[in-house]
């Protein structure tokens, strides 16, 4: 197939998973042209692919102009942005104020616009089965939706594992964007409850960096900030990785020998089943309890058993997080189906 793939770039992280999935379709024998936006494409193109909601409009217009099949992917509809749940359930608590009504209405309009083009695709996907109902309710349409699964980048993992490894330290690592719904401030507060005297590694970028610095001083938590190039080192040397709402980070952490603590949610349960340790959703005391276990009670053997089980489940396809090879094959299937539907 000759595929035109549209997906946004991210200067903070380098190559995104979506860019990588498109690139790895080339390994399956396909010609793939990847970009953020196109005004014209080759007439011998077989299919147009949008890997993000922000790419769907351009992809739809190209497919319409050239009479081509169209596959579209959106991650999800953040429920606090479209009035399905209150933002207090998603990290907008304490000093982080509620979202103003007019800003929320702008979110609603934005997602209506994105989902309009996404829904016109011959095949359309979301990031988890548990997101299907809210999308159908939001659009008011009985849509046929498939789920595109995440795949862990074993090339980079194996490259890291073949080098010099980090020694385990009294550290906790979070890899995430610094935004409220990732709830990193909950981790800082929980560590303050157990008199943590180690280091919290925050790997990422975003608007809340200065806020985390402020509350960490009040809680006497030592924070060090890192960029995305350092994430494997930070997870490798930590006793536990905390990923309260995340797709690939828990899988990466398990391959580095570091167990993962998260909040209980439909999404995390769907992706990882029983391979993670779950705290009650938004319960900072429960988060503190489980952090204390990993920092003070769990042995190296305990951590190894947690991680080996998780890796086994990924490699045997017994959970809904895949190896990257399997994730790319699934993406290829969806793209081929879009071509068949268009016929």
Please characterize this protein's 3D structure:
- With 343 residues, the chain is α/β, with parallel strands linked by helices.
- It has two domains: 2-150 and 323-342, Rossmann fold, CATH 3.40.50; 152-320, Glycogen Phosphorylase B (Rossmann fold), CATH 3.40.50.
- Helices cover 42% and strands 15% of the residues.
- The protein is built from 13 helices and 14 strands.
- The strands form three sheets. Strands 2-1-3-4-5-6 form a six-stranded parallel β-sheet, sandwiched between helices. A six-stranded parallel β-sheet has the order 10-9-8-11-12-13, sandwiched between helices.
- Helix 4 (132-139) links the parallel strand 5 and strand 6.
- Helix 6 packs across helix 11 (284-297) and helix 9 (249-255) crosses helix 12 (300-315).
- The protein is globular, with a radius of gyration of 21 Å.
- The two termini are 15 Å apart.
- 38% of the residues are buried.
- The mean pLDDT is 94.
Helices and strands in order:
Elements: E1 2-6, H1 17-24, E2 31-35, E3 47-50, H2 56-66, E4 70-73, H3 101-118, E5 123-126, H4 132-139, E6 146-147, E7 151-152, H5 154-161, E8 171-175, H6 184-193, E9 199-203, H7 209-219, E10 222-226, H8 231-237, E11 240-242, H9 249-255, E12 260-263, H10 266-272, E13 277-279, H11 284-297, H12 300-315, E14 322-323, H13 324-342
Parallel strand pairs: 1-2, 1-3, 3-4, 4-5, 5-6, 7-14, 8-9, 8-11, 9-10, 11-12, 12-13
Helix pairs in contact: 6-7, 6-11, 9-12
Summarize the structure.
The chain is of the alpha/beta class.
What characteristics describe this protein?
343 residues; alpha/beta; Rossmann fold; 2 domains; 6-stranded parallel β-sheet; 13 helices; globular
């Amino acid at each position: 197939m000759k595929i035109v793939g549209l997906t946004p770039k991210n200067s903070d992280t380098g190559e995104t998973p979506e860019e990588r999935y498109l690139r790895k379709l080339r390994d399956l024998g396909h010609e793939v042209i990847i970009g953020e936006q196109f005004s014209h494409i080759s007439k011998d193109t077989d299919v147009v692919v949008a890997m993000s909601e922000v790419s769907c409009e351009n992809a739809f217009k190209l497919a319409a102009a050239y009479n081509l099949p169209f596959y579209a992917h959106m991650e999800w509809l953040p429920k606090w942005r479209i009035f399905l749940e209150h933002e207090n359930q998603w990290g907008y608590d304490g000093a982080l104020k509620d979202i103003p009504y007019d800003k929320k209405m702008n979110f609603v309009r934005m997602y209506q616009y994105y989902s309009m083009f996404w829904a016109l695709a011959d095949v359309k996907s979301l990031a988890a089965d548990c997101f299907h109902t809210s999308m159908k309710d939001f659009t008011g349409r009985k849509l046929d939706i498939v789920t595109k699964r995440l795949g862990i980048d074993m090339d980079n993992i194996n490259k890291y594992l073949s080098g010099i490894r980090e020694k385990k330290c009294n550290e906790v690592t979070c890899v995430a964007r610094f935004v409220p719904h990732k709830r990193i401030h909950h981790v800082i507060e929980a560590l303050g409850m157990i008199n943590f005297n180690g280091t919290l590694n925050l790997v990422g970028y975003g608007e809340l960096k200065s806020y985390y610095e402020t509350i960490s001083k009040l809680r006497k938590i030592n924070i060090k900030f890192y960029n995305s190039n350092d994430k494997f080192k930070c997870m490798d040397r930590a006793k536990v990785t905390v990923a309260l709402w995340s797709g690939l980070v828990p899988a990466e952490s398990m391959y580095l020998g570091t167990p993962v603590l998260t909040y209980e949610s439909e999404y995390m349960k769907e992706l990882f089943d029983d391979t993670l340790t779950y705290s009650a959703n938004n319960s900072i005391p429960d988060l503190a309890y489980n952090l204390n276990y990993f920092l003070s009670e769990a042995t190296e053997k305990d951590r190894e058993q947690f991680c080996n089980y998780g890796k086994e489940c990924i490699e045997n396809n017994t959970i809904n997080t895949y190896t990257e090879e399997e994730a790319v094959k699934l993406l290829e299937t969806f793209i081929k189906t879009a071509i068949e539907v268009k016929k």
